[in-house]
Amino acid sequence: MKHFSLMIFLLLGGIFGVSAQDNVPAVFRFGDVLDIALENHPQLKQFEARVQAKRGEWWQGIGLASPEISYLSEGMPTDGDGFAERRWTISQQVDFPLQSFFRMQRLRAERQSRSAELAAYHRDLVAQLKNAYADVAYALKLRDLRKQQFDIFNDLQGIAQTRVDVGEAAALELLKINIQLAEAENDLTDAENSYEQARYELFRLMGIDPDEQSYDVAFTDTLRFFAVTVDQESALRQLPDQPQLVSRDAAFRAAKFQS
What we know:
This protein has 259 residues and is mainly α. It is 60% helix and 5% strand. The chain has a two-stranded antiparallel ribbon with strand order 1-2.
């Protein structure tokens, strides 16, 4: 069982560091983390295998069957000289050219469809990684704030207890602080659970099983959000180039060449 120690740093330029054991660089940029996901994500590997399988069918679609070699002997042997006639033949079946053309067109369209499916899943995976990364950063920041809140109420509880002991405050004030302290503790527990769930989701998308790894995650900065404006004309202009539409179009063209 391998054990990794992963240190993630969220920087303004989208950089975070990872500290790991087993031949892993001490500092990771986002591209490095993306490389880990592209190398280990199981569903992505399945899409890549489908593309490779379609590429392997390319040469089979040419229509050239494996050559056959046969040996033929005729006549009667005389005086130990062997048969009167021996013959070696090599034969190979070749499809009708038009049939091979349609088959190649179908395989080309199917390969384009699979490649577009891979591109679409790759894009979706990158988006999921970014969302998961933001969720981890948010959950960690929330956990820190909840911890500060708990510490404040814990200090207030001590102060209230002292005031009650010396007779400067009523027991009702201490009871109120104890209730707020209990609520702050519950909030801290919920924040810690949310952080663990967000962290495990990020590791899952990276293709690393969290049950088999141990991680220490820390951020040195907070997230910064900014608005992104995309006008309708630009969105519609890029619509035909979307991998999902390219895949469906290629699958439709492949169906037309289906024999």
